[in-house]
Amino acid sequence: MGLRSATVACQRLTGAVCYMYSSHMYNILNYLDDFTGVSHPDTALGAYNFIGNVLCDWHLEESVQKAEPPSTSMTIPGIHFDTIPKTMSVTAERLRELSVLLSERAHLTVASKSQLQSMVGKLIFVSKCVLSFYLVSWTF
Asked: How many domains does the chain divide into?
């Protein structure tokens, strides 16, 4: 049995880490208990080392499996970002999940509210990686 207030405590703690990190002029984003940062290549390694020091100073354990040194490409919960070609794409795993879900539900003529919400949520997630024609047409 877990604590009902655990997620609130986690968000407060990660929010405090983000505040401390950003007060040193570094860009950071936290997603639940994960952090990701965006920096110029000249300052990226310093920013990466700084967040490691902040976590160590606060006696917070960093996940060695998740910690990745600065790179021009990275995957953050299901979306792959690459700063060289300036692209974002849905990972193959997420696309497989969506394909399975849609093929399972393709034959249904009736669906529950939760089934529809699940499908729509996954489709909205994937759509975040697709640049709309309307936006593209205004960039000329």
From this structure: 2
